[in-house]
Amino acid sequence: MDEGFTLWFTGLSGAGKSTLANLAAEELRRRSHRVEILDGDEVRMNLSKGLGFSKEDRDTNIRRIGYVCNLLARNGVIAISAAISPYRDVRDEIRRNHRRFFEVYMKCSIEKLSERDVKGLYRKALAGEIKNFTGISDPYEEPLSPELVIDSGLERVEDSLQKLIGTLEAMKYIRNGAGR
Amino acid sequence: MDEGFTLWFTGLSGAGKSTLANLAAEELRRRSHRVEILDGDEVRMNLSKGLGFSKEDRDTNIRRIGYVCNLLARNGVIAISAAISPYRDVRDEIRRNHRRFFEVYMKCSIEKLSERDVKGLYRKALAGEIKNFTGISDPYEEPLSPELVIDSGLERVEDSLQKLIGTLEAMKYIRNGAGR
Predict the structure, then answer these.
(1) What CATH number is attached to the domain comprising B146?
(2) Residue B52 has what pLDDT?
(3) Residue A124, in any domain of the structure
(4) A63 vs B76: CB contact, 8 Å cut-off?
(5) What percent of chain B has pLDDT over 70?
(6) Which residues sit opposite B101 in a β-bridge?
(7) pTM of the full predicted structure?
(8) Backbone φ, ψ for residue B145 (5° rounding)
(9) Per the CB < 8 Å rule, is A34 touching B75?
(10) Each residue of B152-173: pLDDT tens digit?
């Protein structure tokens, strides 16, 4: 019982990774799972201070998150990462190190993201004011076979949550229902 | 039940931290606890590549171990660190971040360590061939009030293990006996 795994969100800035990650964490805790969210900013402060946004530094940061997720997952915790994690090879390397890994691709077009642009980052990035901005001036490599794709430009977040939890149940990552 | 905590060993190189940490891990696993040892070398490779042995870099490395230990401990795992961790302020900072923290000072004189010198490191350090060697060319600050002091220059390791497990029981970090 109570087997851990890593729930790995990937996608562009603003695609809704953190929002869905936090809702999923809430629902999983309600079902008595142990859950730990590795927030991108907190991890950068605690594990990766001094690293920048070059490919090499991003890879190092993501590998560290993956290492910590794995430590938690193999000890019965559902470890959730919600970092952009733009490079496929590093995501797949982390997957290979895991016994149980569930990747959620938060898909959303640049057009949609630029339209919303809650933090005004896309406007700045498109104007060339932010360097190494994933999706604009830095690559984002889509996952080839994630366990789940969420089209966050179309779906309502409550529906995405239901889809995620349903898939976790169907694929036996978690037990069905409230399951106490 | 099954509450996690961090079991933090500190002491000079060769004082027996890893040996006792591994024996303790074995005994605690036998008692059905979840245990994770954060091995100094593995952590350096996974979380601290590029860091050296200056005070600043050592502190960063130790803080990262402390952060990961805390993530594990608050999720029900007994997280064991066996790094030298020479500076008192950083150890105490990590303690303050924890809800449950147990510090074991592996005490052993430089004379005794130089006499044993299994890896030949003390000979080299005394000859000036290793820079920043804790206890010789770099400071080691003894803990002022660790939960346990082990005099590894005098005690047999089986006795140290018994003392450690007995103290963990007496201080209610773990349940008495084999406790399945």
Answers:
(1) 3.40.50.300
(2) 86
(3) yes
(4) no
(5) 97
(6) B6
(7) 0.91
(8) -145, 70
(9) yes
(10) 989 999 999 999 999 999 999 9
